[in-house]
What we know:
Blueprint: H1 2-20, E1 31-35, E2 39-43, E3 52-57, E4 61-64, E5 66-68, E6 71-76, E7 79-84, E8 88-90, H2 94-104, E9 110-112, E10 117-121, E11 130-135, E12 139-146, E13 149-153, E14 159-163, H3 174-179, H4 194-199, E15 209-214, H5 231-248, E16 252-255, H6 265-273, E17 279-286, E18 296-300, H7 306-317, E19 324-329, H8 333-336, E20 342-349, H9 353-359, H10 362-380
Parallel strand pairs: 15-16, 15-17, 17-20, 18-19
Antiparallel strand pairs: 1-4, 1-8, 2-3, 5-6, 6-7, 9-12, 10-11, 12-13, 13-14, 18-20
The structure holds zinc ion.
Zinc ion (ZN) binds next to loops.
Pfam families: Amidase_3, SH3_3
Protein name: N-acetylmuramoyl-L-alanine amidase
Organism: Oceanobacillus zhaokaii
Amino acid sequence: MNFLRSFSISIGFLLFLLLLIPNVGQAQEGRTYEVSSAVLNVRGEPSNNSEIIGLLSKGNNVMVFQEKYGWVQTYYGGQVGWIAKHHLIPLTNTHTADRNVSENQSSSNNVTVTATSVNIRSGPSTSYSIIGSTYSGDTYPLVATDGDWHQVSLANGSRGWIASWLTDKTTASEESNQISPADTVENGLTDNDNTAIDSSTGGSLAGYNIVIDPGHGGNDPGAIGLGGVYEKDLVSSTSDIVVKQLRAAGATVIVTRLGDHYISLNQRAHISNSYNTDAFISLHYNAFPIIGVHGVNTYYSSQSDYQLARNVHSSLVSNVNLNNRGIIQENYKVLRSTNAPSILMELGFITNPNDLSIIQTSDYQFKVAQSITNGLINYFN
Ligand SMILES: [Zn+2]
């Protein structure tokens, strides 16, 4: 008894000491690590007793923002998550590596990205697949040029193609520059959608810039649901439909992620903040270890976002048949860092059999698109 008491007092004292020393072993902001264990739990707090909010697997890359008591903080599914640090291997900073390369070469052999956010493709046209993305100021050694496209050497040793008119080495003439669709990640015109251009001249959302943010992508699968369904894939197909509907209503739509690649929360917010954005909507599907948990909810961060959350969420729950989990205030980073009114929608649980069977239908995803469109029309009027 005596031993136990003094033991717990010592532990309490140690914990107290730790609280007095904030930022112990603070990791560098935004450092990238690779998961070294087969499966790794992401927890809500830096403790083994804390709730598991997600899973990562070997080879996944995570961006780490701070460190506490041997745990590192990242973001998972739009919320703060903690990972035991000893399961992570630090990766070298690719940006630093790029800079070193460019210093050693004459600048004429390098290409610097000038647009905010640009797709890297497997070949010299927009019909080739997207293999990654790059951002304003990134510099790459130039390998070859084919028409209006530059082939560059990437930090991982592979090669990719970037539209020259989005770099400091423009090959396109003024004329072809106008005809060529921009290949920026956030610019939805990449798909050469002419109806989108026509419709932006009319319709009830004409004149509004809407940023649609499909959650996760690339190495970040988001939540993993029943049957191994990835949140990132369902989010992609849903956002494609949402984007089409919004354009049909006349909106100018900017998409933070086209295709399956990783974009950090900072980059998502940066894309939104680079435009005169009227509303930012992040799309997600939810997961929970208890199979019975189901339904949809909408998150907002600050009071100025509440009306947007209210309009879109009420439009959603009047249109779909999933359980209404309500509108919740949460200090999500992607919402906090976005200047425009912003919301994060959790469009159902991929860990609940009934939700999942509905979510996977295009009928449901159309209803979501319709709900967002109608909610925005109500919001702006
Ligand atoms: Zn998510």
